[in-house]
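Repro:
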Amino acid sequence: MDEIIGFVSGFDGVLTFRPAEGDGSPEIAWGDTFFYYSADGTTPTEAQPFATIVTKNYPDDEVSRLDRPGAFRVNVAAGKEAFTQWTGHAPREAAITDADPGDDTVIAHPVYGTVGWLAVTNPGPQTGATIRELLHAAYERTRTRHERHRRR
């Protein structure tokens, strides 16, 4: 997990937010990590993160069994093309499932798959390079979108 945080935090203009007790964030988010593109280094008030790392089950999101010791899941706003490439169907066709996908496997995000998010629980040898590619592509899409809006 620390390796992935270091990798994404190294991208130019990335703001890495790690909620913790006392910072005003909701308790459920403590210990998780949120990646935003922020050229000026301030937390975007309206933007969504382009990737997250979660370390626990959330309500209605227990399929990855993040209650196991050391378990975490990397979530990436992959976009329609990458989502379709990895799942074989469009995001709007994503089905929420109760099946355990297992670790080190690229899957449709259990909750946000319908909007083009992919996820990997406990990335390892099978998905290490893939998750880095997906994270970099999500960063580039977000950065490009931000620059386009800024010029307007």
